[in-house]
Amino acid sequence: MFRSILRAATIGFECHYQLHRLNAAASLQSSLNYSSKNSKSAVTKANKKTKSKDAKADDASSAASDDFDSRLDEGARARALALDENDPSLDVGPDGRPLFTSSPSLSELTRKDACTYIKLNMDKLKAVLPEGLPVGMMKEFEESMRSALLVRQSFLDLRDNFRRIVDPPSWPSDKVPEVRKQVLLDGPVSCGKSIALAMLVNWARDEGWLVFYVPKGREWTHGGFYYKNPHTGLWDTPVQAENILKDFRMWNEGHLKKLLCQVDDPIPLGEGAGVGWMKEVDSMTMPVGATLDDLVKTGIDHTHAAVGVVVRLRKELSLVKDMPVLFALDQFNNWFTFSEYEEPVTFHSCRQIHARELSTVNAYRSMMHDDMMVGAFSHSTAVGKLRKELPDVPAEARVNFPRYSLDEASAVCHYYLRQRLVHREAFSEENWKKVYYLANGNGSEMRWLIPLMR
């Protein structure tokens, strides 16, 4: 008897869940005002079924999967896009304007190139950003099946800000826009902050700058071995410090070999990852004539010196005058909240350690200096909302990075049409505007909604 009741309840729950999914699909389609001339919708088919409860559940599952059949088969779509490359008439954006810019590099982009796409070489992109590409950028490349990015006016403003610092314009000073050496990018989720930061790093490295790029600031405060340094009162993370140095050296090795160390103070040694403290040795000095590359290699080869070298590197980079130096830090908001680490307080309780108490974060977090630095908040890491005025950050440094404007959304939707994410017979100005307003300019949501046009 109990089994019969339980089985009936289970069937009832499954039917209720499937009907809920159908209602959600119907709601989405009505909001986009979809229509289908040749076939009936999955919701209509399901409503006309008069089969048993088990049959209804099967029909609901197939109807839900039909929502994703609008995308062409990946193999067929890739072959079609390969053939499209021979037809330049398809590269048309809004109002008949060119969809792709003719500028070969990020340095040559002008305001006229805004709301167009720039084609990027994937191998070169990975080479110039060996620390890793942003997740949003990789997702865009994967779903569009092309390594191209939208040229946004907000990125051009960011690039020109730092360009004017290094190469001031020659026109009268009263017409020169105010420059900021420290910029903090903030804005809603999926508005393009991480992609803009990666493009800025790409541009700066093409210009020959020395760039300290951190694509995942959260990794500085999570995972690995940690301990409290009795000499500094801060918490050392030697595993993260070694990874920081390896990432920094991958692209900048050529620059580092040309720069001599300028700080002569001994480098303090700490506890190594899994090997404890060194006996009777608490510091080391770099030899005369050592380069910054020698300094970085020392931290990589000797786990006891890793944290000390990362801290020393911050001082050394601020003294470099032979070339521009830029600090670019993504997921910067993770450095203003608590880390993953805990300090035992009593036998039954622990205290969560704040990010500012970590030696590496403490050395790089402050923006109260004269160096060029740009940080980007990543709200997808869900660290919580921070107050407007942050410690060690100038009040004027915070810049709100916007979501897509209507003009940008128009270019984006035409690009997705070019990349066959939506059928041409279903694409219209009315439909893409509905997608834009429904997503409120959110890039990832627009990319998800655009194939649902009918």
TrEMBL record:
Q: What is the lineage of its organism?
A: Eukaryota, Viridiplantae, Streptophyta, Embryophyta, Tracheophyta
Please give the name of this protein: Small ribosomal subunit protein mS29
Give the GO cellular component terms, alphabetically. mitochondrial small ribosomal subunit
Its subcellular locations are: Mitochondrion
Judging by the UniProt lineage, the source's domain of life is Eukaryota
Region annotated Disordered, chain positions: 37-68, 84-104
Q: Which InterPro entries does the entry link to? A: Ribosomal_mS29
Q: What is its main location?
A: mitochondrion
One Pfam family this sequence matches: DAP3
Q: Give the family per the record.
A: Belongs to the mitochondrion-specific ribosomal protein mS29 family.
Which keywords, in A-to-Z order, does the entry hold? Mitochondrion, Ribonucleoprotein, Ribosomal protein, Transit peptide
Protein's organism: Trapa natans
